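User: Let's play a game. I give you a shape written as tokens, and you guess the letters that built it. Ready? Here's round one.
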């Protein structure tokens, strides 16, 4: 009886220790990753300092604004790409399923860790247009993106989101592939799949498990609830999104 009790205590102690280590990793990993992202900026500033030393103060004032803007660009690009490379290198990705929302759960821990690294970069990309760099970054995080695709809005879960060719995602659209339930202590992750030639209007919201078949269109501000399938060649809109009959008038005006 005492042996069983000791085993239970040892198990509990190990779990607590594991949780403490993982909790520490949240702060430590992000600190290390974003610190590494500063290295290119430091190298650049050092180079500029030695390059500008021989010139007069007037030249410094004229050139300084350009140096500052370029420095900011170098900082943003290095932080974005280095964090993406580290996520890819260490395979910090999660898959579909329902998990206990706790650092003790391996998949939930990966989700939390990726959020810790991804969220600051996502906020930067929402403010500063980075063009193709955004596509490269999302692909580093495991997102499948087809050719000639405009990824506007916010992708909450890149590693479980798939987008086909010739897709347009409008500004302020949000694609969620997870649902957290604090009452039950769970997190549910379900893949989102967007087919070819789809349009997602500005401000639209797509929830976990949604599939948009080829040529489907979601109007601006539309809300697609979880696990819905938007059929090919159909137009949807509203909250919750329902099929909008295609008339000659709205087809010509593209009033979607």
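Assistant: Ready! My guess for every position:
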């Amino acid at each position: 009886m005492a042996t069983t009790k000791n085993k239970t205590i040892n198990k509990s102690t190990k779990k607590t220790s594991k949780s403490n280590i993982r909790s520490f990793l949240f702060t430590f990993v992000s600190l290390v990753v974003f610190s590494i992202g500063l290295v290119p900026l430091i190298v650049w500033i050092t180079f500029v300092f030695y390059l500008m030393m021989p010139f007069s103060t007037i030249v410094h004032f004229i050139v300084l604004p350009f140096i500052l803007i370029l420095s900011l660009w170098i900082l943003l690009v290095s932080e974005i790409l280095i964090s993406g490379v580290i996520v890819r290198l260490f395979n910090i990705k999660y898959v579909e399923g329902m998990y206990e929302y706790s650092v003790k759960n391996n998949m939930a821990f990966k989700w939390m860790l990726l959020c810790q690294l991804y969220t600051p970069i996502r906020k930067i990309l929402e403010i500063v247009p980075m063009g193709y760099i955004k596509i490269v970054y999302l692909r580093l995080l495991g997102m499948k993106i087809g050719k000639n695709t405009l990824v506007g809005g916010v992708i909450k879960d890149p590693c479980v989101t798939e987008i086909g060719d010739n897709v347009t995602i409008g500004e302020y659209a949000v694609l969620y592939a997870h649902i957290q339930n604090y009452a039950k202590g769970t997190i549910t992750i379900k893949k989102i799949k967007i087919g070819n030639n789809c349009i997602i209007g500005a401000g639209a919201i797509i929830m976990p498990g949604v599939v948009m078949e080829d040529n489907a269109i979601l109007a601006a501000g539309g809300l697609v609830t979880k696990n819905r399938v938007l059929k090919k060649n159909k137009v949807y809109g509203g909250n919750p999104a329902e099929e909008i009959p295609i008339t000659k008038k709205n087809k010509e005006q593209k009033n979607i």
